[in-house]
Design a protein that fits this description.
- The chain has 355 residues and is mainly alpha-helical.
- It has helices spanning 37-43, 46-55, 61-74, 79-88, 93-103, 111-134, 146-154, 163-172, 180-190, 195-206, 218-222, 228-240, 258-270, 275-291, 297-307, 315-336, and strands at 22-24, 30-32, 35-36.
- It is built from 16 helices and three strands.
- The structure holds acetyl coenzyme *A.
Length: 355
């Protein structure tokens, strides 16, 4: 028998492989390919950042415009998929994305081009899901740019006032080393499964409320908090019952999630008096005082999206539409230096039973 190594449950603080895509620096900054994610959010477009994540370097002007055009062209949905959506009439947008990504009739044989197709279709799939569910005509948008077009599709194109804030949020959601969904994708990739199968594993994993699903659960409680006293009462009750408060805590960030603080700063600029924002700050302050638990990005992301007029059913798809570029990079990093991911388990069941 090979030597057995026992590691922490949930693989907490266990380094399982190397990556050159993203990390959290010793100063607590999230780095994408060495650049601070918050600097990229402030200064670069979604497409330039996606190019950096996928290709490992910032694009030249020519590369940037070719990459952006390629995403733009790939954003359209095959008509046969729209027909299926009309029959399905699924109301859970994320569930439908997972299904449609799986059955999509991809024409590309080249795995990198195939990935770029998957990378590009989530915005239109999200909009189409809701339209099909409501029995309304599909909506197209002539707006250019991945995040701006997505914003226009899911807000009905009524306003583009805060498209820049939406783009920043999408950049901050793009990548986070070995988070649960990326790790699931890498497990699938390590078996040399095709990119579509690996992305389905990632989408399924992102959906859980302890990961991407947290952002749509945040508003459920914030809406009922109208004062600092109510915030304290809510936190006290949850802590007393040992229940999790969505939008707080993180496996990596134990003091401060830089993405949460960046989005909070964005909200402070555009919506300082927004009641949900004030409720979130009150919960954040008290939870820190009581349990030293910091807010994570999903807390302020949910509030920003609500303020931007985005329906809650799209919150998780926004995360997925961004994180898929991280998954893209991780898929190739895994298969290009592969070893199947196959841990062992400590057996605690019976032995030597007889029939
Ligand atoms: N609310 C209340 N208490 C919490 C929370 C929370 N949100 N998060 C952690 N804690 C407490 C735990 O109960 C535990 O307390 P204890 O030591 O007294 O038992 C301690 O903090 C450590 O928490 P763990 O759950 O062990 O931390 P872990 O790293 O395993 O989990 C996770 C991280 C899953 C994110 C957790 O903090 C959580 O469930 N948060 C709520 C869901 C959420 O917001 N998820 C989004 C994550 S960010 C993202 O995916 C982009």
């Amino acid at each position: 028998m090979p030597e057995i190594v026992k590691v922490a449950k949930g693989l907490e603080n266990v380094v399982v492989d190397k990556t050159a895509i993203a990390t959290t620096s010793s100063a607590g900054d999230l780095l994408y390919r060495g650049y601070k994610a918050i600097d990229l959010a402030e200064k670069k477009s979604f497409e330039d950042t996606a190019f950096l994540i996928v290709n490992g370097k910032l694009p030249t002007d020519g590369e940037a415009s070719r990459f952006a055009s390629s995403i733009q062209e790939n954003m359209q949905i095959d008509p046969s998929v729209r027909e299926i959506m009309k029959i399905n009439r699924e109301s859970d947008v994320m569930r439908n994305i997972r299904s449609m990504i799986s059955l999509y009739p991809y024409r590309e044989k080249d795995t990198r081009k195939l990935f770029l197709k998957m990378d590009s279709i989530i915005p239109q799939l999200s909009s189409d899901t809701m339209k099909a569910f409501k029995g309304e005509p599909f909506q197209d948008s002539s707006v250019k740019g991945y995040s701006a077009k997505f914003y226009s599709l899911i807000t009905g194109g009524k306003t583009m006032d805060h498209a820049a804030s939406f783009q920043k949020l999408m950049i901050l959601y793009m990548e986070h080393e070995f988070n649960a969904s990326t790790f699931a994708l890498r497990v699938a990739a390590s078996t040399l499964a095709d990119p579509v199968s690996a992305v389905c594993a990632a989408l399924a994993t992102l959906k859980g409320p302890l990961h991407g699903g947290a952002n749509s659960e945040v508003l459920e409680y914030l809406g009922s908090i109208n004062s600092r006293e109510e915030a304290r009462k809510y936190v006290d009750e949850k802590v007393q019952k040992s229940e999790k408060i969505m939008g707080f805590g993180h496996r990596v960030y134990k003091k401060r999630d830089p993405r949460a603080q960046f989005v909070k700063g964005e909200l402070k600029k555009i919506a300082p008096d927004y009641p949900l924002f004030q409720a979130a700050e009150a919960v954040e302050d008290y939870l820190w005082e009581k349990k030293n638990l910091p807010a994570n990005v999903d807390l302020y992301a949910a509030i920003l999206m609500k303020y931007l007029g985005i329906e809650e059913s799209f919150y998780l798809p926004v995360f997925a539409a961004s994180r898929i570029y991280g998954w893209n990079a991780h898929y190739f990093e895994q298969v290009e230096n592969n070893k199947i991911i196959r841990p062992a388990a400590e057996y605690i069941g019976p032995e030597n039973l007889t029939l």
